Amino acid sequence: MSDKTPVVLIVDDEKSMRHSVGVLLKKHAYDTAEAADAEKALEMLREDGPFDVILCDMRMPGMDGQEFVRRANQMGVETPIVVMSAYGSIDTAVQAMQNGAFDFISKPFKVEEVIIKLGRALAHRTLKDELEELRRERRAAFQFADLVGKDEKIRAVFDAVEKIAGYKTSVLIEGESGTGKELVAKSIHGLSGRKGPFVAINCGAIPENLLESELFGHKKGAFTDATADKEGLFARADKGTLLLDEIGEMPLALQVKLLRVLQDEEVRPVGGTQSYKFDVRIIAATNQNLEEAIKEKAFREDLFYRLSVFPIHVPPLRDRPGDIPLLVEYFLERHQARLGVKVKGVRQKALALLMEYPWPGNVRELENVLERASVLAGGGYIEAEHLPEKLRSPRVVDIKVPSEMPLAAGNLSVKQNSRVLEEIVIRKALEKTRGNRTNASKLLEISHRTLLYKIQEYGIDD
Ligand SMILES: Nc1ncnc2c1ncn2[C@@H]1O[C@H](COP(=O)(O)OP(=O)(O)OP(=O)(O)O)[C@@H](O)[C@H]1O
Ligand SMILES: [Mg+2]
User: Fold this and answer.
1) How high is the pLDDT of residue 360?
2) pLDDT tens, 89-146?
């Protein structure tokens, strides 16, 4: 909390009123500023602001308090406004609060009432600022470029990106579908300081016979449809970065040509006789295991070594469930900015389902599920029923149930064996969250306190 003297802006058309309130507030350790009408007050908010609290009379000639509150709100003024209205005009005060005023005081007022209400408004303001500051700090700590995450596995990726960005070394990004490979590639480019563009091509999405001309360009007449010269992606990405996505899908014949291009740092367009030098940083990405593909002779080993000078492995989302709450918050904010859908929050039960699901489609799938859920939540909280059926239906997850269930001291009491099962599940949750009790309690759908109690009860030391 800042220890500077809070400043109250007094808006009142009566000079004697401004004066007496001013004296009163100064006595209670406030500084004051005065505005003789609402227009002037708005101007001061625009130019001198921010003030810590605004104290505003309701009935004023020209713009009245009602209109002032509305306009201040429209301007995005976050300073709490306390309105003063003559006794008997409660209705207008209520309306002012609906328009965004923080509180009201009826005139003639008691000194204590003014001091208490201003104090409350000030505390509210401070708390809001502090919350926002905390959020910002937390976000900054867990965000790297556009990548969000705090798990050590994803932090290792951030570190690698930071280290390698400035060099022209080839990077091979491996990871399952939707883990963020393209985002990692963009972050590398973004931090590289390279002046040219970031260009991406999905090698698996382009017919084999067109891929070569897409990459290297072609000369007019090189083949039937080549009615004009065409620039290739290597030329387009000059001084920038070229992402060869799904590199594992590249046909073998083209792999040979690509290797030569990378070695010579020059390309020859299809049907051309001349080669061109280029300055392109190559990043390749794949969701296949290229070493397997090499064994099966579907991928060339020499190209693999050329591309994977610096490999980066992006971990699947199920291996970092602790990142899920962060990603949820991040995506909800983004959806809000993009679609204007505001969500109040995510219910505990829904969050537990999100953290427990194995996410075969990784971050992309999570993003889609949240987009749908925030629309369904319709301005309220995201509840379990806003999530797709596949997240809600009980599933045999990766818990390996021993072929022989350990029994409580060799008996078949349901009650006693439930405890055995409970202990297994708790141990599993702690293992999965690497001992993080807050996250484990979410997975287990029990309170943090209950978990601590049970850990003690079962003598689990994690
Ligand atoms: N760590 C992260 N923080 C924030 N957003 C992320 C993160 N990882 C992925 N995303 C988002 O998830 C979506 C999928 O990411 P991206 O397209 O980079 O994945 P990919 O690995 O290239 O997937 P594919 O293999 O299917 O091409 C994108 O919208 C991306 O912005
Ligand atoms: Mg991709």
Assistant:
1) 92
2) 778 888 888 888 999 998 888 888 999 999 999 988 888 888 777 766 766 677 777 8
Q: How far is the CA of 225 from the centre of ligand 2 (A)?
A: 29
Best CATH choice for the domain 408-457 from the list 3.30.565.10, 1.10.560.10, 1.10.10.60, 3.40.50.150: 1.10.10.60
Q: Rounded to an integer, what distance in angstroms lies between the CA atom of residue 206 and that of residue 301?
A: 23
Q: What totals of helices (H) and strands (E) does the chain contain, helices first?
A: 19, 18
Q: Specify the range with the lowest mean pLDDT, choosing from 33-37, 171-175, 454-458.
A: 454-458
> Which regions of the chain carry the CATH code 1.10.8.60?
318-392
316 Cβ inside 6 Å of ligand 1: no
Q: Is the Cβ atom of 179 under 6 angstroms away from ligand 1?
A: yes
Tell me which amino acid residue 235 is: A
**Are the C-beta atoms of residues 148 and 322 closer than 8 Å to each other?**
no
What are the residue ranges of helices labelled H in 28-87?
38-47, 65-74
SS3 for 361?
coil
Instruction: Name the helix (H) or strand (E) containing 202.
Output: strand 198-202
Site to probe by mutation for ligand 1, drawn from 319, 363, 365 as the one with most ligand atoms within 8 Å of Cβ, is 363
pTM for this one?
Answer: 0.64
Whether domain 7-139 has CATH 3.40.50.2300: the reply is yes
CA distance 406 to 282: 54
Output the pLDDT for position 18: 93
Interior angle at CA 461, CA 457 and CA 462, nearest 5: 125
Question: What is the per-residue pLDDT across 329-381, written as a single tens digit (0 to 9) for each?
Answer: 999 988 888 877 778 889 988 998 999 899 999 999 999 999 999 999 987 89
- Interval 289-318 mean pLDDT: 94
Q: Which residues pair with 8 in a beta bridge?
A: 32, 53
Provide the token pair at 450: 């209950």
Mutation test residue for ligand 1: of 364, 367, 371, the one with most atoms within 8 Å of CB: 364
In Å, how far from its chain's centre is CA 79? 27
> Hey, is 263 helix, strand or coil?
helix
